[in-house]
Amino acid sequence: MKGVATMETINEQKFALVVEQAMTKTRDSKRWQNAIRRAAEMIQTNPFTHWTGSALLIWSDSGEIYEASKVCQCRAFTKHQPCKHRAAYRLVQRYNETSH
Ligand SMILES: [Zn+2]
After folding, report:
1. What is the 35 CA–ligand 1 centroid distance (Å)?
2. What is the pLDDT of residue 54?
3. In the structure, what pLDDT confidence band is assigned to residue 100 with cuts at 50, 70 and 90?
4. 42, 82, 92, 97: which one has the fewest Cβ atoms less than 10 Å from its Cβ?
5. CA angle, 58 as apex, 57 and 61 as ends, to 5°?
């Protein structure tokens, strides 16, 4: 399967703003802030992510494919912990909703 770069033409300024807003919203949760930081890095460096319109497909380093939306299939999610996949989903969703 071929990966499709979600952020091939990423507007870095706009993306940074989305990340900043997400960090502000989650300032009470260190775990979410960590997840967001890792998610932002992943979006910018992992070309194997694909936005389906309702979920973010992520080919992980370990060779697994996650379909992240409000739910995820990773270990953190099953333990009810924040995960970078869902954080990435929210960042991409917000990025796509932001028109400027
Ligand atoms: Zn996850």
Report:
1. 10
2. 94
3. low
4. 97
5. 160
Coarse DSSP helix, strand, coil percentages of the chain, rounded to the nearest 5 percent = 50, 10, 40
Q: Helix or strand or coil: residue 60?
A: coil
Q: How far is CA 81 from the centre of its chain?
A: 15
Tell me how far the alpha carbon of residue 56 lies from the centroid of ligand 1, in angstroms.
Answer: 11
**In this structure, what token pair is assigned to residue 79?**
């333990």
Tokens at 43, concatenated: 């979006």
Measure 58 CA to ligand 1 centroid, in angstroms. 9
State both tokens at 36: 């967001």
pLDDT the model gives residue 98: 87
Amino acid at site 31? R
